[in-house]
Amino acid sequence: MTETPTTVEFTPERLTIAQEMIARYPQGRQKSALLPLLHLAQEQWGWLSPEVMDYVGRMLDIQAIEVYEVATFYTMFHLDPVGKHVIEYCRTGPCCLMGGEEVYDYLKQKLGIQAGQTTPDQQFTLKEVECLAACGMGPVFQIREKYYMHLTRERVDEIIEELSR
Amino acid sequence: MGKKILLEHIDVPGIETYDVYRKQGGYTAVEKALKTMSPDGVVEEVKKAGMRGRGGAGFPMGMKWSFLAKPEGIPRYLVCNADESEPGTFKDHYLMKNIPHLLIEGMIISSYALGANKSFIYVRGELMYVIRILEKAIAEAKAAGFLGKNILGSGYDLELVVHPGGGAYICGEETALLESLEGKRGNPRNKPPFPAVKGLYQCPTVVNNVESIATAGWIVNNGGDAYAAIGIGRSSGTKLISASGHIKKPGVYEIELGVPVEEFIYSDEWCGGIRDGHHLKALVAGGSSVPILPANLITKLANGEPRLMTYESLSDGGFQTGTMLGSGGFIVFDETACVVRNTWNFSRFYHHESCGQCSPCREGTGWMEKVLHRIEYGHGSMHDIDLLVDVSKKIEGNTICPLGDAAAWPVASAIRHFRDEFEWHITNPSEATKPGAVFKGDMALV
Question: Per the CB < 8 Å rule, is B201 touching A29?
Fold first, then answer.
């Protein structure tokens, strides 16, 4: 369950990481740290609210609009609240050749939701993504940093059961 | 067995760690380059190797390096393109995950050759777990004295930064990648100026693919001539091929350029043949953007000679009867695959990934997707086929970056070689829209 943040501030550990990320880029080029910081923010809050984006903008000393235009361009960032597990399902050709569409239909039916929706218990959000660079191991989906490969109906049952515990 | 340059030690347990990699001869190329060679000497060897960029465009890496502007007092940058996103391509993912130090070693050598003191590896954001593997490898290399200040007492300093993308295919285009690395939207830049003159932060920059950079160590250790001796003619060296689709053994294979396509598909050393009981129908040889080939043009050229896995042989006959090696994303289709559906799928991909900057691509990709969708779902007309060809021609060559071409080629080639399959969808909509229905026609199968 992701909550709307009340106090927008990185945890002390993430603040250290954020400062270290900013320092990687040449002086005056701190804006380069925008994508890394947005990933870090999404890791903490689950999604990027306007307040979170404003906070990241202040850290980098850039305008809020510079953050919004980037966050809306890149598909990995969630601009609305999401469930505990975001399933990012590959819908591109090579995965489809391996039965990706059938498995995807089964997953939608199992969760009772369509792409872009979250289950009523806030456990799963389903998102369609394009090629995840794992075409030889398709069908594939990703949850956070983990790749789930060679998907079948049975494998989907196992994964959902495991994550629902 | 072909020559292995990159994957020679792939099966050694623990090869992802510094200690094991070092025991297998790792980082000896850094020692050789920094202690015995000048930066220009390294560039010379890479030029002699004749290795062509492995990201897809195939531009010789040594030549790209020699274009780098070197004005006094301005920093130069090397950026590794690890934004691997071309459908059908997963070799860089495989390489970085399994042998991260091969890339780190190549980055050190390449940065030294170019005179860069801060270099970047731009990895697609979805591969966050690979980013963590690379960061660990960098920390290990630094602890061993191969990164940081005054490396091996040579006076050369280098810092490596791993940078995550955000899920945008367009950032594999080098100028979009640089924009993205500067913290902006990934809109490709107009060229000129080329990155070699004004790249990252408006400073001279070289952008190279993971596989290209990872090869630098072998070239330094063995010499450019030894590399050029592998392969055939202007297709020198080895190439990582990502094999997927309806084959017995999908995976990443390193081949010596020049292997016959037929052997690559059917030999047990590589793809192992088409899955049981099925036949080869079509091939996308170099990632989703290259022209699709029908069965009768895959293993043989138009003149009947065997087609080889080289840049030249795959493109033999131009787009009429040939295709491209591209990124080496080798997608095999058997007779159960529907070319119309796959073309619609790829079209949707390019529409989704168009950055929206140039109108022919922004509007054209969406238009093609829509038309292909209606053909696939039984609402097409014969006029739609010519319309698709027309739209694809108007995108091709009319955009700032190659995404427009990449979107146009799969559509134009599918119609060129599988027109009867499109027509069947239009004239037999009730049959064609049945689940799993595929055109049987008189198509040639191998």
Answer: yes
